[in-house]
Amino acid sequence: MHELARRRLFALIAAGVAAASTGCGRGDEEDKVRVLDEVAEIVGPVERMDSFPTVDELNRFVDGLAAAHPDVVTVEEIGRSRGGDPIREVRIGSGQRHLVVLGNPHPNEPIGMATIQHLLHRLTRGDMDTLGATWHFVLCVDPDGTRLNEGWFAGPMTRTAVARDFYRPAGSEQPEWCFPITWQGTEVGVPLPETKALMALIDRTRPALIASLHNGDFGGGFFYTTGGDAEYYATLTRLLADANVPLYQGEPDAPGAKSWAPGVFELPTFAQMADALVAVGVDPVPSIGGGGSRDYSAAYGTAVLVIELPLWGDPRITDPAASDRSVGSVMRAAATACRELVELVAGVLDRLGDRATGRSPFERSLRAGLTDLLDLAAAKDAAADQERAATRGEVFTEEYVWTGLHRLRSGGMLLRLLDEEMRRDPSPELAAERTRVAAIFEGWSADIERNAPGRSVPLDRLVAIQAGAIVAAATRLRDGLPI
Hints:
Elements: H1 3-9, H2 26-43, H3 55-68, E1 73-80, E2 86-92, E3 97-102, H4 111-123, E4 133-138, H5 143-147, H6 159-164, E5 181-183, E6 186-188, H7 193-205, E7 209-215, E8 222-225, H8 230-242, E9 259-261, E10 264-266, H9 270-279, H10 284-288, H11 293-297, E11 303-309, E12 312-313, E13 322-326, H12 327-352, H13 361-382, E14 389-391, H14 392-424, H15 428-451, E15 455-456, H16 459-478
Parallel strand pairs: 3-4, 3-7, 7-11, 8-10
Antiparallel strand pairs: 1-2, 2-4, 5-6, 8-11, 9-10, 12-15, 13-14
Helix pairs in contact: 1-13, 2-16, 3-4, 4-16, 8-16, 12-13, 12-14, 13-14, 14-15
C-alpha cells in the first residue's frame, strides 16, 4: 500500500501463524480442501530462488516464451516510462473474463516480477487451464525505478545490503497512486506516463480482477480485497500458513480500511483514506498523491486484490511481555529519532547548494520524505501520553522496524545521491560529506545487523503465496463466487 499513509499511521506490525477460524462444517472444509488442491495444482512447485529477476531478465524470459509459444503468448507495448522503457503487457488465454496482474507497482517490491515469471511459465504448459479467463500481465509498472533497485536483487538479502542500493520514489512519482479522480470537487492525481498506460489497459479490458503485487520489509503477510466472504479470506490466509509465513495481525496500514478477517483488510478508496487522514490532521492530497487502481477501475465493477508479503521476519515483533519502558517514552524516543533524521537529511541537502537541482530521483525522494518524517514525529508525539508499560514487541517495532527502516532507507539514498554528485563533479568538500554520512550509515547498519537483522523469508515461498492468491481469486471468479 501507499508508503506515506503507512508512515503516518505507523500501525504496529504483528505476526503469528494462525489460520482464520470460520466455524464451518465438514462439507465446507472439504470444499476448501478441494479449492486449495486445485490452486496448488495450477501454481505447481516453485523452484528455489536466490535472486529476483531484473527488468531485462524478465523481458528476455518473456521474449523467449513468446517465441516458443507464438499461438499462446501475445506481448504488447502499452506505453513508455518517463525514461523511455517499454511498459509491456503479456496476454494469455481468450476467456470472457479479463484478469490484470500488476508487477512492481512500487519499484522496491520485486516479488511480483518473480511471481509473474512463474505464472507465465505455468500458464503456457500444454495442459494448463486458464480458468476461462484472458490474463494480462504487466511485467513491471515502474521500470525506471526498478532499475535503480536492481543492485540488491541478487542478494545478499540482508537489511543493510538492500538499503545500500535502495530507491523508492516520492509519492508523486509512484504510478499506482497517480490515477486522476475528483475529491470534494477538486481534481486530484496527475497521471504519469506509466499510469496512463495502466488506464488504457483498464479501459480496454474492463477487468473482472486486478491483482497488485506488493511486498514490505519486515513482519507478516496480509491482503487487501474489495470484497469476498469468509471462505475467500480463509483461503488467502491459509496460503500464508502453508508456507510458514507469519500472518500480520496488526492494524491495516491503509488509513480508513476496515478488517474483513485476521490478515485480510478492505482496500479503501481515495475518499476513505482521505477522510481518515483529515481526521488526524493530515492533508491527504500530498500524502496519497492521487487515486489508486481501485478508484479508476470502479466504473467497471472490478475486484482488486493486493498481496503484501514480508522479506524478513522476527518473532520479537509480537512479544507480549511487558518492558521496563512506558509507551509514552518509546513514542517520544521515536519522534526524536525522526526529527534527528530530518536534521541530517536536510543538512546534507542544504550543503549540496547549487548541486541540488531536483534532477536526481534520490534527492526528490529524500525531500518528499522530510515532510513525511516531521508528520510522523508529530503523530508519535500525539501518542506519547500513554503511560502504560510498552510490550517488548512494541519497543522492538519502534526501534528496529520503523526507526531502523527510515534510517537505512534515508541513509542509503543519501549515499547514492552523494555518489551521483561526485561522479558529476568531485570536490574535497563533497568527499568529506560523503565520508561523514557513510560513517553514520555504517553505525546504523552495524546496530541493525547486530540487534535486528531479521530472518529472510525464502523467495520461493513468497512467490508461491502470491501466485496462489491470484489463482484462488481467479477460480472463485470462474465459479461465480465473491472476491
